[in-house]
Known about the structure:
This protein is an alpha/beta fold. It has one domain: Aldolase class I (TIM Barrel, Alpha-Beta Barrel), CATH 3.20.20. The chain is built from 16 helices and nine strands. It has an eight-stranded parallel barrel with strand order 1-2-3-4-5-6-7-8, surrounded by six helices. α13 links the parallel β5 and β6. The model has no long low-confidence stretch (mean pLDDT 95). Iron/sulfur cluster binds next to loops. InterPro entries: Aldolase_TIM (IPR013785), BATS_dom (IPR010722), rSAM (IPR007197), rSAM_sf (IPR058240), ThiH (IPR012726), ThiH/NoCL/HydG-like (IPR034428).
Amino acid sequence: MFSEVLEKISWNDSTKAIYAKTSTDVERALSKEHLDVNDFMALISPAAEPYLEVMAQLSRQYTLQRFGKTISMFVPLYITNSCTNHCIYCGFQHNNPIARVILTEEEIENEFKAIKKLAPFENLLLVTGENPAAAGVGHIERALQLAKPYFSNLQIEVMPLKADEYERLIHSGLNGVICFQETYNKANYKIYHPKGMKSKFEWRVNGFDRMGQAGVHKIGMGVLIGLEDWRTDVTMMAHHLRYLQKHYWKTKYSVNFPRMRPSEGHFQPNVAMSDRELAQLTFAFRIFDRDVDISYSTRESAEFRNNMATLGVTTMSAESKTEPGGYYSYPQALEQFAINDNRTAVQVEKDLKLLGREPVWKDWDQVFDR
Length: 370
Ligand code: SF4
């Protein structure tokens, strides 16, 4: 399990090593064909900042070679905001006195129909909070079954599950699972996640092993930028990615670096990441791993997403609602966080085409997996 590997990697020593990197380390990393985590640390370090343009060109080149000019489009659907966790940065946290919604089957289908009117989305991401008693695996399973006639690629972003529960969902059409570790800083993890199942660091971080063991086709990883030193956190994620690739080599992987946005939780981020730094991280990840999908959500602005669409990003959401039932049933409900790109999916498509990119709505079908 990855928690045992992580025990042996010192957070503080990693931080020191990143900030001690020099231009020689950066140039060595840029000249290599196969990069290790040590090289990745050089590319995200302050020492790499003067190399941003070189990194951008390499990132663009590797992305074109592996993904062509395509951008895979997806849409999230929150099916509940009910949550027993207390994440201090989230508007859905248990103590927040907001109206809680668990979409009924009819409401879920209404959302699917409303989404289909926005654009020809085929990649659906079902999102929940964590309330296994009221909206557990059975509820997610039913939502997947209902989604099958509408969408060809089904992914979930829900609480970590047991391996046999992932297997059960695969039988109902599940193709991918996204889970954010939020932070790999075990010493501080409980400050942000004080109560509930999410407070159990090992359970969450080893959830990725359980996904791999269950044979999930695609695993999405991410850290929430704003909690801890982002350079150290993404270094731990790079270790995690390499570990998973070694142990579950049939699985595909995606990464995501969401920057914290305002929510009803009123949590002020501990660290800020500039656009320039997010660009550096994106280029570094592409140079580190040419196959990994790099995903940007509507947390980022339209202008920034447009800029990055030709430089390394391969997956994007569009016209996202971050509240349950936001497309049809409850458009005024409280959102989990404020989005930053308010364009319609059609406008995103137009903009991507103007940039010479080809938005792809359908890039997966269950028949591929037979
Ligand atoms: S981040 Fe997720 S688990 Fe945490 S309170 Fe929000 S919805 Fe619940």
